[in-house]
Amino acid sequence: MAVTLPDALLTRYKRFSLYNSPYRAHDGGCAVDLYPGTLRDGRTTVAPSPVSGVVRETRTVRAPPKPYAPEHDHLIVIDCDGPDELEGLTARILHVEPSVSSGDRIAAGESLGTLVRAGFFAPWVDNHLHVGFRESEQNPYRASGSLPLEPGVEIEPLAWDGTGRVVATGETYAVLDAPTHPDPGSRFIGVAADGGDPSGTERALSEHRFDGGVLDGGLPHYDGGGLLGLEGSATGAVSLNGDRLGAVDGRTIAWDDVTVLANDEPVTGLSLFCARDANFGAKLICPDVDLEIGDHVAVSVRPDP
């Protein structure tokens, strides 16, 4: 059973990702990270609820130990009665210090509390709500067990030639001014994968091809990613500007052993997601490479030796 994330839920947020995470709850796109802030306001603490319903429980949970973050996080469990597509399901929400408690009725968009940065976060990850859904009788406390998710919105693949100028930086990342949203607020977009016909062994392995699709995930700093915005499933090689990234099966991509380059310098990776705001642009994860606002950057991907 796949759960559709309706327009009424996703459009409350600036960005979302099903695959941009190292944690198994996101395997196969079984959880969604919802970002209330833009790429230039990634540390907002606003935490609007994605659903309406009754809070079943809140609890403090252990987070991985990190020198820059607390070793605890918070879990909010909500029995959903809206949006309609989610009625009867249980939502499991992390990364919010709750201002709600057991028995409270919450409306969609109402504040759940304050976004927090626990040990689940890499230093470059922006503040977000982690959300999964499961049947009401399922154990809501296990990290695994959430249902696969399907975005119920249009996601437009946006061509990007790999170049741009730096418009924002942090200690571990840089945001480029490209690609740009053609009509901010109207729909979600993401970086388009190359379509095209395979050759050799890849053609022999599959008769099913895909055209385009939106790349989602941490390339290659997380094990895999996703290909969103397609009708049906896809099989075969996935590329960006002719540089092979990996292979897709269904909508899940297994990254090849590759390195992302910024001006021919190796960086940690490229963060890929869906966004609808005017400040959309490529996000480079580059803690060991100094990039400054105004720098021109050309991004490419090479196979590892």
Automatic annotation (TrEMBL):
Protein origin, superkingdom: Archaea
Name of the protein in its database record: Uncharacterized protein
* Domain DUF8155: from-to ranges: 4-150, 156-302
